[in-house]
Amino acid sequence: MSVSPGSERLAEQYEAFSAESAAESPHYSALATAIAGDREVLGFLADLPEGKRHPTLFLAALRFLGGVPADGVEVHERVTSDADRLRDTVLSRATQTNEPARCTGLLPALAEIDGPLARVEVGASAGLCLYPDRYSYEYDGHPVGPAGRLWLRCTTNGPVPVPATPPEVVARIGLDLDPLDVTDPDDLDWLRALVWPGPVEAERLQRLDAAAAIVAQEPPTLLAGDLLDRLDDALALVPSGATPVVLHTAVLPYLDDDRRAAFVDRVRALPVRWVAQEGAGIVPGTGQSYPGGWGPYFVLSLDGRPLAHTAPHGGRVDWLS
Ligand SMILES: C[S@@+](CC[C@H](N)C(=O)[O-])C[C@H]1O[C@@H](n2cnc3c(N)ncnc32)[C@H](O)[C@@H]1O
Question: Which domains, ranges and CATH numbers included, belong to the chain?
Answer without folding.
Answer: 5-92 (no CATH), 100-319 (3.40.50)
